[in-house]
Structures are given as structure tokens and as C-alpha cells.
Design goal:
The complex is a heterodimer. The two termini of chain A are 37 Å apart. In chain A, strands 2-1-3-4 form a four-stranded mixed β-sheet, sandwiched between helices. Chain A has a two-stranded antiparallel ribbon with strand order 5-6. A two-stranded antiparallel sheet of chain A has the order 7-8. In chain A, helix 2 crosses helix 6. Chain A is elongated and about 100 Å long. Chain A is α/β, with parallel strands linked by helices. By secondary structure, chain B is α/β, with parallel strands linked by helices. Helices cover 39% and strands 26% of the residues of chain B. Chain B has a six-stranded mixed β-sheet, with helices on both faces. In chain B, helix 6 links the parallel strand 7 and strand 8. In chain B, helix 3 crosses helix 4 and helix 5 packs parallel to helix 6. The longest helix of chain B is centred in the C-terminal third of the chain and has 18 residues. Chain B is globular and about 50 Å long. The chains are: A alpha/beta, B alpha/beta.
Amino acid sequence: MPRPLLNIVTKEVKEMMRDPRILLGMVLAPLIIFPLMGFALRTSTEAMQESLRTVPIAIADFDHGAVARNLTDFLKSMPNVKTEVIEAQSIDEVAVVAQASNVTSVVIIPEGFSSNVTAGVKAALKVYGVFRSGGIGESLTFSAAQSLVELFRQNLISETVQTRFPENQNVLDPLAISQESIIKGRPVDVNPSALYSFTQAQSFSLPLALFMLIILAMQLASTSVATEKEEKTLETLMSLPLSRFTLLIGKLAGSTLVAAIGAVATIFGVVYYMGSFAFGTTTQPSIDLAAIGIAPSLLSYAILGVSVFVALLSALALAVVISVFAEDVRGAQSLLGFVYMPLLIPMFALMFTDLNALPFGFQILLLALPFTHPMLAARATITGDYLTPVLGIGYVAIFTLVILYIAARLFATEKILTAKIRLGRKKIKEE
Amino acid sequence: MSVAIESVDLVKVFGNIKALDNLTFRVNEGGIYGLIGPNGAGKTTTLRIISTLILPSKGLVRVFGHDVVHEAAEVRKLITYLPEEAGAYKNLSGYEYLQFMGGFSSRDTADLRKMVEDAARISGLGDRLKDRVKGYSKGMKRRLLVARALMNKPKLAILDEPTSGLDVLHAYHVREIIKQYAKEHNVTILLSSHNMLEVEQICDQVALVNKGKIIVEGTPSELKSKHKAANLEEVFVEVAGLA
């Protein structure tokens, strides 16, 4: 690296890493906030799971018949269920007792229940949820109670049907349905739902990580230029025997390095955060991507890396161009706010749908945005379609060069010292 | 004696405002030349054009024979510029700032070390140079910046209001540095100030600027005797009233 460029990059990194706002906001905060969020979520999920360990159900039997007794015994025999029998004269009385106790559901067996079931007449059975705070724990234990009653109903049907058709054991389940996938023209023994949930998790986390990285980088680059203007150090820099292009590249390189440190901190934080949910998904079978032919190749990772890098560079160049028009850091951040939201938000459309499924005009808009292309490159790691991301890299590289050219032109002229946008008047004014 | 700066019919227009109106002057090598005048007279605009930061609308400026527009890179090798109210990087220490700035004009590490040692001496900040700039007072910061502007012994140092906002002691220190450095190292100094008494003390040659024009030029003693004034302030009041 040439000495002047190294000098600028070293200064940029030193300045930024010593700035408490940057150190706190971009490096320490992700390392603290994400794990804290994960801890909070894990604690509450564990509390929910704990609450499911005992499902408190009250039973009010107004029937006292054989089927009613079967139901009561069935509920009592279930593991993790704590039953409480309420002896009362009316439903109103049951409600008062249930509300005063800690049960979350009440199964009320009306009079005539057993005789109706035995006679083949539809028998009424009431399951009440006892509403207290309406929390997730309450809702989950009520659902558990509902499922148990449903299980009893299924058992009742099975018993009845099997009595009528003793020779045909499959009458209730005559179909053996299996779910499998076709991947790249090959049948593969993998449940598509598991595959979809895996790819959807990817298509959600990558845009989010990319969004954070790009905003981080843009803020750094614009702050770096705006601080020079605010602190009036830019004029001194520009009078030095140093090419304006070197100055520009030095600033971009410095911001990229610090953004990379911030991104690594964010990734560490996010990985810990995501890890907080790992126990919740242990029931899902893990998928061996290599065995089913969709393991990302080294080439696809390389393409994704290049795609993210050029998109990042385009964001940095864009931020520098924008900050040229700001008088100070606050102005630069405000201008950036106007720009990055419209640029970044459309790419979230790709989290929910494929590019091809969108209206043609929206497709063109998305393809025109540089930040869409790393997401397409990420999809290509699974599909193996390398042409789309390579074309995307070409497009973003050209986009970046154009923005860099504009940035270099602005740095080479007096515009960088004189141009400013007054947000109140929304027009460009020269000193 | 060669010519350090030659400005001929310099015009600068910002929108509807004519900041410089056919400004013509010449600065000889090794001298201390002062542009004096009220705020908004056009002093800073002139210094920024000579420092290759902004372009003239019309006219010609040469620094040691190099055109500031077409040979800007050459001009930047010969000059240092100290903007008015310039800051330093607040998260760097004084030493780190000097090392960073010296890195662009030093030939090698030994040269850079010598430059930084010189600057440390000029600034008179001693051990405080190890502290981060954000803890410096305005006076300390200005001393650091003046030291930076002189440390590589430029052929021309352009200093915009070098003592602006400083207390008596800091202003005295900065003036002494400028005088001493110009004499010892044959550095040409072009400075601007609206403090006319200060300029009278350190400049060999002065130009009174008002509304983008030079209204009178000469040595301080010439101007005072010509206008029968006790100081340059009285000269300015008289000529500005006549202009």
C-alpha cells in the first residue's frame, strides 16, 4: 500500500476506534445487546416450557356416567396434568371456584353425556379457558388441555369404529402419505417443509445482517467525511501534497475496515442470539445439504463474498457523495436517513417472495438497487445458478465505479468545501 | 529576490456575491505578508485560492511560478495552509497528529522524526503532546496547528487568522514562532488578520483589503507615514472611508 494511503487508513481506523460513539454503538453494543436479547428470550421461553410441565385442569362432572368417568380417568392418567375435580351445582358455581384456583382450563361434562355417546347421539362437552392475564403460559396450557380432550375424542372414535370393523385395522388411516423433495431434477428423501424452514431462516437472516452491515458502513463513511468538515480538518487535508483520489480511497478503506470489525461483532452477537433458540428447534431433523446436492460450493461462497463486498463499497461511495453536501455530522446523518431507507427497504421484499414472483416493474427496481444482488447471490449458493450473481456483481461494480467517479470529482473540486444542502429549504446552496 | 506569490486581477464570484474584485498583489520570497481587513473582505477566499482549495472565477495566481489551477499538485508540494478555526483530530494525541501530517511531506522515517521533534519544540506543548487533542484548550490547539504548518519548512506558509481567539500569552507565542521561523528558515509567510496591530508587529509588507479589493499596500511604516497615522488601524479607517 502506498505510504500516503497507509497514513490515511491508519489515521481513519485509529480515530474511529477511539471514538466512544463508534466503539460503543458499533462494536460493544451488538456484543452486549444481542446476547441480552437472547438471554431474555431464552429465559421467557424456559419459563413457558416450565409452565407446560404441569397443565392444571379442573373437571366438573354433572353426568357421573361411565364415559364421563372414562374421560376423568383419562385426564388424570396423563403425565404433566394436574387435575382437580370441582363438585358444584351449576356452571356459574364452577366458574367462581375455577377463577379462585390456579387452573387454566375447566372441562365440564354436562348431564346426559355418557348416554348420548353410547346411543350414538352427538354429546356436548365444554372446555373453558380461565382467563387471567392472557399471557402465553395461560394460552399454552389451555391449548394443551384442548389437545387432551381432542385425543380422548380420537380414542372414542377409534374404539367405536374398531368395534364395528374389527377385520379392517386401517379404516381410520387408509393412506400412508410421505413428503419428499425433488432437487435439481432428482428425487430426494427429505421433507420439503424442513427444507423450506431451513432456506427461509437463511433468507431472513442474511438480509438482516446485510442491512445492518450496510447501514453501519454508510454511517461510518459519512461520519468520517462530515467530521472532517465539522472539525475543519478537511481544508488542511486537501491542501496537502496528496491526491484527492488517495484521500477518498483512504477514507473508504478505513470505513470498510472498521465496518468489518463492527460486522464481526454483530455476527458474534447474532450467532449467540440465534443460538438462544437452538433448543427450540432440536425436534427438527437436521438436513445434510451435501447428501441432497445443495451444499454451497466454495465458488458460490466466493461469489457471495465478492457480491457483498462490491455492494458494501457502493454503499460507502454513496455515503461519501451524500456527506459532501452536509455541513456537519448531524446533517450527514439526516441526509443519509433520507437515502438509505428507500434504498434498503425494497430488498426486504425478497425475504418473503422470489424475484420472479414480483410484478415486472418492481423486479426492475430491485435489480437496479445494488443491495439486492448479494441476496440473489445468497440464493444462488443453494440453487447453483452462478450467472445471475456474476451479472449482478458486474452491474454493482459499474454502479460503484460511477458513484466513485462522482465522489472523486466532488473531492477534486471545491464542491466538497462549498456545497451544502439546507434541509429546511431543500435546495443546494453555494457559499 | 524571487517572487513567491503573484496574483493578477483575481476575481471570485459565489452566486450573486463578488467576493474578490480584480485583486492584484505580489509577495516576495522570505517575507511576511499580511492581508488585513474586516470580516467578509475576501481575505480567506484569497488564501483558499492560493492554497488550491477553490478555483478563481477569473484572473491568475502563481506560487513560485506554478499556476494554482493547472499546477495545483506542484503548488501543494510547496505550501502549508492553516485554515481559520481549523481543528485537529480530537481522538489522536498531539504527537500522533504531527506524525500523521508530517507523513505526507517527510522523505523517510528519520526525516519524519526530525520534523516531529521540531514541531514539538515550536509548539512548546511539552508532555501535553502525549495527550489526546480533545483535552486541549483553544490556544494549545492553535499552537499545535501552527507548529504543524511550519514543521516541514515549506517554501510558503499560508496562515489564516493565526492568532484568532487566543489569549495574550498564546497569541504572543504564536507571533514569535512565525517571526522566528520565517527568518531562520527563509519561509515565506502569507497571513490574514483583522487584528491590524498584530500585523503591524510581524509583517514586512501589508495589503489592506476591503470588499474584495486591495485599497492600499506597502510596509507598515510607509503606510503610517503616508497617511500620517499612529497605527495601521487609523490608516485603514482613513482609506476605507475614502475608498
